[in-house]
Amino acid sequence: MRCKGLRITLIRVVDEGAGGESGRRDRLTDRIGLGVLTRLVHRDLVDEVLADTGRTERRRRLLPARVVAYFVLAMTLFFDDAYEEVMRKLVDGLRFLRSWDEDWQLPTSSALCQARARLGAEPIRELYARVARPLAGAGTPGAWLGDLRVMAIDGVQLDVPDTADNEDAFGRGVSQGLDAPYPKVKVLGLGECGTHAVIDAHLGGVLVDERELARPLLASVEPGMLVLADRGFYSREFWQEATATGRIAVAGAVSTEIARSHRPG
Protein backbone atom coordinates (compact mmCIF):
# COMPACT_ATOMS: atom_id res chain seq x y z
CA MET A 1 0.00 0.00 0.00
CA ARG A 2 2.83 2.41 0.72
CA CYS A 3 4.35 1.86 -2.71
CA LYS A 4 1.01 2.48 -4.42
CA GLY A 5 0.49 5.69 -2.48
CA LEU A 6 3.96 6.92 -3.32
CA ARG A 7 3.43 6.18 -6.99
CA ILE A 8 0.14 8.08 -7.14
CA THR A 9 1.63 11.12 -5.40
CA LEU A 10 4.58 11.34 -7.77
CA ILE A 11 2.53 10.81 -10.93
CA ARG A 12 0.50 13.91 -10.10
CA VAL A 13 3.53 16.19 -10.00
CA VAL A 14 5.80 14.69 -12.67
CA ASP A 15 6.69 16.96 -15.58
CA GLU A 16 4.23 16.42 -18.43
CA GLY A 17 6.81 17.63 -20.94
CA ALA A 18 9.35 14.92 -20.14
CA GLY A 19 9.11 13.17 -23.49
CA GLY A 20 5.74 11.41 -23.60
CA GLU A 21 4.44 8.49 -21.58
CA SER A 22 7.74 6.57 -21.74
CA GLY A 23 9.73 9.62 -20.67
CA ARG A 24 7.38 10.30 -17.76
CA ARG A 25 7.63 6.69 -16.61
CA ASP A 26 11.45 6.75 -16.76
CA ARG A 27 11.66 10.02 -14.83
CA LEU A 28 9.21 8.71 -12.23
CA THR A 29 11.33 5.59 -11.68
CA ASP A 30 14.46 7.72 -11.33
CA ARG A 31 12.82 9.99 -8.78
CA ILE A 32 11.41 7.13 -6.72
CA GLY A 33 14.87 5.54 -6.57
CA LEU A 34 16.58 8.78 -5.58
CA GLY A 35 13.87 9.55 -3.04
CA VAL A 36 14.40 6.19 -1.35
CA LEU A 37 18.17 6.68 -1.50
CA THR A 38 18.11 10.07 0.21
CA ARG A 39 15.65 8.79 2.82
CA LEU A 40 17.83 5.79 3.73
CA VAL A 41 21.12 7.69 3.54
CA HIS A 42 20.39 11.05 5.15
CA ARG A 43 22.77 13.92 4.47
CA ASP A 44 23.53 14.25 8.20
CA LEU A 45 24.79 10.66 8.18
CA VAL A 46 26.86 11.37 5.06
CA ASP A 47 28.42 14.42 6.74
CA GLU A 48 29.14 12.39 9.88
CA VAL A 49 30.88 9.66 7.88
CA LEU A 50 32.88 12.20 5.88
CA ALA A 51 34.09 13.76 9.13
CA ASP A 52 34.94 10.38 10.66
CA THR A 53 36.92 9.35 7.57
CA GLY A 54 38.78 12.65 7.22
CA ARG A 55 37.06 13.80 4.04
CA THR A 56 35.65 17.07 5.39
CA GLU A 57 36.80 19.84 3.04
CA ARG A 58 38.42 23.12 4.00
CA ARG A 59 37.49 24.96 0.83
CA ARG A 60 34.34 25.08 -1.25
CA ARG A 61 34.47 23.00 -4.43
CA LEU A 62 32.22 22.58 -7.45
CA LEU A 63 31.89 18.94 -6.34
CA PRO A 64 31.89 18.82 -2.52
CA ALA A 65 32.44 15.45 -0.87
CA ARG A 66 28.77 15.08 0.12
CA VAL A 67 27.65 15.45 -3.49
CA VAL A 68 30.29 12.99 -4.68
CA ALA A 69 29.15 10.45 -2.07
CA TYR A 70 25.57 10.64 -3.37
CA PHE A 71 26.89 10.46 -6.93
CA VAL A 72 28.69 7.18 -6.18
CA LEU A 73 25.53 5.80 -4.57
CA ALA A 74 23.46 6.93 -7.57
CA MET A 75 25.81 4.99 -9.85
CA THR A 76 24.44 1.80 -8.29
CA LEU A 77 20.92 2.81 -9.38
CA PHE A 78 21.88 3.86 -12.91
CA PHE A 79 24.80 1.53 -13.60
CA ASP A 80 24.22 1.49 -17.37
CA ASP A 81 24.54 5.28 -17.69
CA ALA A 82 27.62 7.43 -18.27
CA TYR A 83 28.96 9.64 -15.47
CA GLU A 84 27.36 12.85 -16.75
CA GLU A 85 23.97 11.17 -17.19
CA VAL A 86 24.07 9.76 -13.65
CA MET A 87 24.85 13.21 -12.29
CA ARG A 88 22.08 14.76 -14.38
CA LYS A 89 19.57 12.30 -12.93
CA LEU A 90 20.88 12.91 -9.42
CA VAL A 91 20.57 16.68 -9.78
CA ASP A 92 17.13 16.38 -11.41
CA GLY A 93 15.90 14.14 -8.61
CA LEU A 94 17.26 16.36 -5.85
CA ARG A 95 15.74 19.44 -7.47
CA PHE A 96 12.44 17.58 -7.54
CA LEU A 97 12.87 16.93 -3.81
CA ARG A 98 13.76 20.62 -3.28
CA SER A 99 17.22 19.68 -2.03
CA TRP A 100 19.35 21.39 -4.65
CA ASP A 101 20.79 24.79 -5.55
CA GLU A 102 19.33 25.86 -8.90
CA ASP A 103 22.48 27.83 -9.80
CA TRP A 104 24.75 24.77 -9.71
CA GLN A 105 26.15 23.60 -13.05
CA LEU A 106 26.70 19.99 -14.10
CA PRO A 107 30.41 19.00 -14.02
CA THR A 108 32.26 17.19 -16.79
CA SER A 109 33.14 13.49 -16.74
CA SER A 110 36.79 14.28 -16.04
CA ALA A 111 35.82 16.42 -13.04
CA LEU A 112 33.67 13.58 -11.73
CA CYS A 113 36.58 11.12 -12.10
CA GLN A 114 38.87 13.42 -10.13
CA ALA A 115 36.22 13.92 -7.46
CA ARG A 116 35.76 10.15 -7.06
CA ALA A 117 39.51 9.73 -6.65
CA ARG A 118 39.54 12.43 -3.93
CA LEU A 119 36.70 10.79 -2.06
CA GLY A 120 38.14 7.28 -2.16
CA ALA A 121 36.48 4.06 -1.07
CA GLU A 122 36.59 4.43 2.71
CA PRO A 123 33.58 6.77 3.13
CA ILE A 124 31.38 4.60 0.90
CA ARG A 125 32.47 1.47 2.76
CA GLU A 126 31.66 3.12 6.09
CA LEU A 127 28.28 4.38 4.85
CA TYR A 128 27.37 0.87 3.80
CA ALA A 129 28.41 -0.55 7.17
CA ARG A 130 26.16 1.94 8.99
CA VAL A 131 23.12 1.62 6.74
CA ALA A 132 23.00 -2.05 5.70
CA ARG A 133 20.74 -4.06 7.99
CA PRO A 134 17.94 -6.65 7.87
CA LEU A 135 14.64 -5.18 6.72
CA ALA A 136 12.06 -7.93 7.26
CA GLY A 137 9.18 -7.40 9.63
CA ALA A 138 7.32 -10.07 11.56
CA GLY A 139 5.02 -10.82 8.63
CA THR A 140 7.50 -10.68 5.74
CA PRO A 141 7.04 -13.85 3.61
CA GLY A 142 10.08 -16.12 3.43
CA ALA A 143 12.01 -14.18 6.06
CA TRP A 144 11.49 -16.42 9.08
CA LEU A 145 11.69 -20.05 10.16
CA GLY A 146 9.90 -20.02 13.47
CA ASP A 147 11.62 -17.23 15.39
CA LEU A 148 14.84 -17.47 13.33
CA ARG A 149 15.62 -14.83 10.71
CA VAL A 150 16.58 -16.71 7.54
CA MET A 151 19.80 -15.44 5.97
CA ALA A 152 22.02 -16.81 3.20
CA ILE A 153 25.63 -16.55 2.11
CA ASP A 154 26.09 -16.56 -1.64
CA GLY A 155 28.50 -15.32 -4.27
CA VAL A 156 28.52 -13.80 -7.72
CA GLN A 157 31.18 -12.92 -10.30
CA LEU A 158 31.01 -9.52 -11.98
CA ASP A 159 32.86 -8.19 -15.02
CA VAL A 160 35.01 -5.12 -14.36
CA PRO A 161 36.67 -2.75 -16.86
CA ASP A 162 39.45 -4.31 -18.91
CA THR A 163 42.45 -2.55 -17.39
CA ALA A 164 45.86 -3.82 -16.34
CA ASP A 165 45.21 -2.81 -12.72
CA ASN A 166 41.96 -4.77 -12.58
CA GLU A 167 43.55 -7.82 -14.18
CA ASP A 168 46.41 -7.73 -11.67
CA ALA A 169 44.03 -7.28 -8.74
CA PHE A 170 41.27 -9.72 -9.67
CA GLY A 171 42.34 -11.94 -12.58
CA ARG A 172 40.25 -13.00 -15.57
CA GLY A 173 39.25 -16.56 -14.91
CA VAL A 174 38.50 -19.00 -17.72
CA SER A 175 35.48 -19.24 -20.00
CA GLN A 176 35.13 -22.31 -22.26
CA GLY A 177 38.82 -23.07 -21.96
CA LEU A 178 39.91 -19.52 -22.83
CA ASP A 179 40.73 -16.47 -20.76
CA ALA A 180 37.55 -14.54 -19.98
CA PRO A 181 37.16 -11.37 -22.09
CA TYR A 182 37.09 -9.13 -18.99
CA PRO A 183 38.67 -9.26 -15.54
CA LYS A 184 36.20 -10.48 -12.95
CA VAL A 185 35.65 -9.68 -9.29
CA LYS A 186 34.11 -12.24 -6.97
CA VAL A 187 31.60 -10.84 -4.46
CA LEU A 188 30.35 -12.76 -1.43
CA GLY A 189 27.36 -11.41 0.44
CA LEU A 190 25.31 -12.14 3.55
CA GLY A 191 21.71 -11.45 2.64
CA GLU A 192 18.25 -11.65 4.16
CA CYS A 193 16.20 -14.23 2.26
CA GLY A 194 12.83 -12.55 2.68
CA THR A 195 13.88 -9.12 1.40
CA HIS A 196 17.18 -9.76 -0.45
CA ALA A 197 18.77 -7.03 1.68
CA VAL A 198 22.55 -7.61 1.68
CA ILE A 199 23.85 -6.64 5.11
CA ASP A 200 27.53 -7.41 4.52
CA ALA A 201 29.73 -8.14 1.52
CA HIS A 202 33.35 -8.86 0.70
CA LEU A 203 35.09 -9.04 -2.63
CA GLY A 204 38.25 -10.57 -4.00
CA GLY A 205 39.90 -12.10 -7.03
CA VAL A 206 38.02 -14.50 -9.26
CA LEU A 207 40.24 -17.42 -8.24
CA VAL A 208 39.92 -16.86 -4.48
CA ASP A 209 38.09 -19.68 -2.67
CA GLU A 210 34.55 -18.58 -1.76
CA ARG A 211 35.00 -19.87 1.78
CA GLU A 212 37.90 -17.49 2.31
CA LEU A 213 35.75 -14.54 1.27
CA ALA A 214 32.81 -15.82 3.33
CA ARG A 215 34.72 -16.04 6.62
CA PRO A 216 34.65 -12.27 7.34
CA LEU A 217 30.87 -12.32 6.83
CA LEU A 218 30.45 -14.47 9.92
CA ALA A 219 31.22 -11.43 12.08
CA SER A 220 27.96 -9.83 10.85
CA VAL A 221 25.79 -12.76 11.87
CA GLU A 222 23.66 -11.92 14.90
CA PRO A 223 21.90 -14.12 17.46
CA GLY A 224 18.64 -15.48 16.10
CA MET A 225 19.82 -15.80 12.49
CA LEU A 226 19.64 -19.06 10.54
CA VAL A 227 22.34 -18.85 7.86
CA LEU A 228 22.02 -20.99 4.74
CA ALA A 229 24.83 -21.79 2.32
CA ASP A 230 25.11 -24.18 -0.62
CA ARG A 231 27.40 -27.20 -0.78
CA GLY A 232 30.27 -25.15 -2.20
CA PHE A 233 30.80 -23.61 1.23
CA TYR A 234 30.68 -26.85 3.15
CA SER A 235 33.81 -28.08 4.90
CA ARG A 236 34.53 -29.26 8.42
CA GLU A 237 36.75 -26.23 9.09
CA PHE A 238 34.20 -23.71 7.85
CA TRP A 239 31.38 -25.40 9.79
CA GLN A 240 33.42 -25.38 13.01
CA GLU A 241 34.37 -21.74 12.56
CA ALA A 242 30.79 -20.75 11.78
CA THR A 243 29.33 -22.50 14.83
CA ALA A 244 32.16 -21.80 17.30
CA THR A 245 30.60 -18.55 18.50
CA GLY A 246 27.45 -20.32 19.62
CA ARG A 247 25.39 -17.51 18.09
CA ILE A 248 24.34 -18.97 14.77
CA ALA A 249 23.02 -22.01 12.97
CA VAL A 250 24.37 -22.89 9.54
CA ALA A 251 22.58 -25.32 7.25
CA GLY A 252 24.80 -26.44 4.40
CA ALA A 253 22.81 -27.73 1.45
CA VAL A 254 24.33 -31.20 1.54
CA SER A 255 21.33 -33.44 2.00
CA THR A 256 23.09 -36.38 3.67
CA GLU A 257 24.79 -34.15 6.24
CA ILE A 258 21.57 -32.29 7.02
CA ALA A 259 19.75 -35.58 7.46
CA ARG A 260 22.37 -36.81 9.94
CA SER A 261 22.49 -33.49 11.80
CA HIS A 262 18.75 -32.96 12.10
CA ARG A 263 17.19 -36.39 12.57
CA PRO A 264 13.78 -36.33 14.29
CA GLY A 265 14.22 -36.51 18.05
TrEMBL record:
Q: The Transposase IS4 N-terminal domain covers which part of the protein?
A: 33-128
NCBIfam families noted in UniProt = transpos_IS4_1 (NF033592)
Q: Does the keyword Transmembrane helix apply?
A: yes
Name assigned to this protein: Transposase IS4 N-terminal domain-containing protein
TM helices/strands, residue ranges: 63-79
Q: Which UniProt keywords apply?
A: Membrane, Transmembrane, Transmembrane helix
